[in-house]
Design brief:
heterodimer; A: 480 residues; alpha/beta; five-stranded parallel beta sheet; two-stranded antiparallel sheet; B: 402 residues; Rossmann fold; five-stranded mixed beta sheet; 13 helices; globular
């Protein structure tokens, strides 16, 4: 365990020092098909749109030759060489023997370090290296974080007033949402869990479109079929939220497999919480992604709580980051409330995923400030002052604001203007969404299949006849 | 009771025979690997011949409507002969040639060629990525297939045995069936999920599942069951071309059926039933392996003077009520023969559907012959008793036609 940790942190340092790809000694599973790692120049690293100029692919993805049995990294560290130079080729590769019976500890001496750029006051930490952000991007990131916060509070209030049936806020995780989204291009596919509306917001989903989905009206792209916050938009490459936990993680791997087959210069990102990592789908998906070498970023929002289950009841490992190496996936732990750290880490991850066709696991440590959803009262299982401390002292939005203000890119007038404007737009969007018609009865039966089969046509006919016969039992404003 | 392994038997006139007079070789001699080249022929006089090679005199056409029983020399007929698993492979290969987005994923489908050799040779031809060997995680590779399908591929997910797909139920029900609907039609899932199911030869309870019962409720999926090389290839191609998620049920014991199929390209319709034998007296609805038990019973029934109409429903979801209805209106008597268990099986839903829609046309209550509600036992005799046998079918028809 300790050896692995050193290796992974080493690789990140090397990344920054040289901006080159990877040290072959720290890469996992040398595959004989991949003759060499592609060169990775500084220019490609900086270019967000990534023209991929130097990607020399000698990998024939449709080669008829079978992947030869992958050999586990051939660690010929001198450490292992001392006196027991007996080594045997078991299936899976060479492994050195040792006469010393030593169990790998279940918990490390020290937890995996967490990458951070900005301190609590929004000042860049002295020795940190990070991806520089332009003013335009930084301001857009900040505005979107504020928009997300405002949208959350307005929708939450609307639910409490009974205007929508359900809502789940993203409070405390705005940096995760926006900073990760800001790195990706529109061609990168997003497979969300349900606490990532900020990614959709960044991609251009309007407040009105959010409101339409929450109210389930006829303008909702989901045609009123899903609960609020289960957004989905194919034109934004944001795959519809399903309520099932972690089922999207294997979907993401399948999508990355599809991208690899098409040789597209894009990656997939999928989000899930700490609780989601307990699902079998998470483990198998990581395993698959490593074996198939596909470009996917696994982003874990470790916010400490799965409804009322704290992480201490969820797993006993050092968080989620240590699970990556168990499957042969390169991983990093970042401060989830630090916009620049997330931005930098996701940027590096994306480059590695696409250039090297490998999965990356990012664990972002953060805190779920809000309740799990409007059906939850988290004060019942955690102290109120803890929640308040994270809400105010550790607010990621405020932290980033301090940084952009210190750069002279933002001031308090912008702040109040923005918040007022967004709030007004939100209230207007809600009003419009509320008044809009609900989807017509016909939409109950469409899209089950590509064309409605005869039994569904019959059932629709039956329903319409029933409604006509007993109009008093049906709401008059339901469109047909 | 003799269940014929391998290709259909000669259509010589036969009296109903007493199983006690038959001395069948021990089941040990009929292992899967041997089945390819050897099978039992039960003669009308009750004697048993153990053939070690494919006889020329065998009827290979599984549609038993013709009176002539001997197959002419194979060379002069059009088309080509192959086994059912080869037909599946042919369909699969044609579709993979035709459309580069078609891919296969499953356990041991690549270099091993699949546990029933349906994907044999495909990995060599198309590469390891397009015929993908997955680790053992059914729910997750089905999920992977769904994600790939939403992103533009047309994956075929193979369950090594249908029973293993119970592990994939979450993905199949909650995501595969639902995501097209819940996304408002934005994301489609043109996936094919296939695999061998049904009761085999002493495979034990876990490997003898009839998953069509469990899956039939899931909205958003289509289910079809193949039974002959002809419809296996046709349904495979249709399923791949369909924009909807399709579950294709194959049967472990039917993979070595031999038939002559056309050289020209053809596709079967996913929603149509197949008229196996037109008749006047009674409608027998069945699918998959039970079709052969029904046809065997049909021979007996014909000799007793009955004229059964046999329909292989093929489409398990949705039912082809048009074909079925026309038949019911003609014969007024329905017998359903299935391998599913009594409770909640395909037969149960079919009974309900026919009763609802064609009640006025029925002269007698529908009889549904199914397996009992027990896990399939290992012991050969016990296993045989859980599966509907031709003699029961004959008895049921006699009962219906009183």
């Amino acid at each position: 365990m300790a050896l692995c940790l050193r290796t992974s942190s080493r690789s990140i340092l090397y990344y920054f020092k040289s901006k080159m790809g990877l040290l072959s000694s720290s890469s996992s599973s040398l595959n004989h098909q991949h003759h060499q790692k592609p060169p990775f120049t500084a220019t490609t690293a900086q270019n967000l749109r990534d023209p991929f100029a130097n990607f020399s692919t000698k990998v024939n993805l449709l080669s008829p030759r079978r992947f030869q049995s992958t050999k586990v990294e051939e660690q010929w560290d001198s450490l292992n060489h001392d006196h027991h130079n007996q080594v045997l080729d078991f299936p899976g590769g060479k492994v050195a023997f040792t006469p010393e019976m030593r169990f790998i500890s279940e918990s490390p001496v020290e937890r995996v370090h967490c990458y951070r750029v900005l301190d609590d006051n929004g000042q860049v930490i002295m020795s940190s290296k990070f991806k520089q952000v332009s003013e335009e991007i930084a301001v857009k990131m900040y505005s979107d974080m504020v928009t997300l916060q405002t949208m959350d509070s307005v929708f939450y209030e609307a639910q409490r007033q009974g205007r929508i049936s359900f809502y789940a806020t993203t409070i405390g995780e705005e940096a995760i949402n926006i900073a990760s989204a800001a790195v990706l291009t529109i061609d990168d596919l997003v497979f969300p869990q349900y606490r990532e509306p900020g990614v959709l917001l960044w991609r251009g989903f309007s407040l009105q479109e959010f409101a339409n989905q929450c109210f389930g009206n006829k303008d909702d792209y989901g045609k009123g079929r899903q609960m609020p916050i289960h957004y989905g938009s194919n034109k934004h490459n944001y795959f519809t939220v399903a309520a099932t936990i972690a089922t999207q993680v294997p979907h993401a791997v399948g999508a990355a497999y599809s991208l690899k087959m098409d040789r597209k210069k894009a990656c997939v990102i999928t989000y899930f919480g700490d609780g989601g990592t307990s699902e079998g789908d998470f483990h198998a998906a990581l395993n698959f992604a490593a074996v198939m070498e596909v470009p996917v970023i696994f982003f874990c929002r470790n916010n400490g709580w799965a409804i009322s289950t704290p992480t201490s009841d969820q797993f006993r490992s050092d968080g989620v980051v240590v699970k990556g190496p168990a499957y042969g996936v390169r991983s990093i732990r970042v401060d989830g409330n630090d916009t620049l750290a997330i931005y930098t880490a996701v940027h590096a991850a994306r480059e590695m995923a696409i250039n090297e066709n490998r999965p990356i696991l990012i664990e972002a440590l953060t805190y779920r400030v809000g309740h799990h959803s409007t059906s939850d009262d988290s004060t019942k299982y955690r102290p109120v002052d803890e929640i308040e401390w994270w809400r105010s002292a550790r607010d990621p939005v405020a932290r980033f604001r301090k940084w952009i203000e210190s750069n002279g890119w933002w001031c308090s007038e912008n702040e109040s203007e923005l918040r007022m404007s967004v709030r007004k737009q939100m209230l207007h969007a809600i009003q419009v969404a509320e008044k809009a018609d609900k989807p017509p009865i016909a939409e109950l039966f469409t899209d089950v299949y590509n064309v409605p089969p005869s039994n569904l046509c019959e059932q629709e006919k039956f329903l319409r006849e029933t409604m006509k016969r007993h109009p008093q039992d049906y709401m008059p404003d339901v469109p047909v | 009771m003799a269940t014929i392994v391998g290709a259909a038997t000669a259509l010589s006139a036969s009296k109903s025979f007493d199983s006690r007079k038959l001395h069948l070789p021990s089941r040990g001699s009929l292992s899967v690997s041997e089945r390819k080249g050897s099978f039992l022929v039960v003669r009308s006089d009750g004697s048993v011949v153990h053939k070690a090679h494919r006889a020329q005199k065998l009827i290979t056409n599984a549609v038993a409507t013709k009176a002539d029983s001997s197959a002419a020399s194979t060379a002069s007929k059009p088309g080509h002969e192959l086994l059912l698993f080869e037909a599946l492979r042919e369909g699969l290969e044609e579709e993979m040639d035709r459309d580069p987005t078609v891919c296969v994923m499953g356990e041991d489908v690549g270099h091993y060629g699949g546990s029933y050799k349906v994907t044999k040779g495909l990995a060599t031809k198309y590469g390891d990525l397009r015929v993908l060997d997955t680790p053992i995680a059914e729910n997750s590779f089905t999920g992977m297939g769904i994600g790939a399908a939403m992103t533009g591929l047309r994956p075929i997910v193979e369950g090594m045995n249908m029973g293993f797909l119970l592990l994939a139920f979450n993905q199949i029900s909650n995501n595969c069936g639902m995501l097209h609907y819940t996304s408002g039609g934005q994301f489609k899932i043109p996936i094919v999920i296939r695999g061998p199911g049904g009761v085999g030869r002493q495979l034990g309870a876990e490997h003898s599942q009839r998953l069509e019962s469990y899956f039939q409720s899931i909205p958003g999926i289509q289910m079809v069951a193949c039974s002959t090389p002809y419809n296996a290839k046709g349904l495979m191609k249709a399923a791949i071309r369909s924009e909807n998620p399709v579950i294709l049920f194959e049967h472990v014991l039917l993979y070595n059926l031999k038939e002559r199929i056309p050289d020209e390209e053809y596709v079967c319709s996913l929603e149509e039933a197949e008229m196996v034998r037109p008749g006047e007296h009674v409608t027998i609805l069945t699918y998959s392996r039970m079709r052969y038990h029904v046809m065997q019973a049909a021979k007996t029934l014909v000799n007793k003077g009955y004229d059964p109409e046999v329909i292989d429903i093929r489409s398990l979801k949705p039912f082809d009520l048009h074909t079925i209805g026309n038949s019911v209106k003609k014969t007024h008597r329905v017998l359903i023969v299935e391998e599913c268990m009594r409770t909640g099986g395909i037969g149960a839903s079919l009974t309900a559907a026919i009763t609802e829609n064609f009640n006025d046309y029925l002269d007698a209550p529908i009889i549904c012959l199914s397996s009992q509600d027990v896990p399939t036992p290992y012991a050969g005799t016990l296993e045989e008793w859980t599966v509907v046998q031709p003699a029961q079918i004959v008895t049921a028809v006699e009962q219906l036609c009183q």
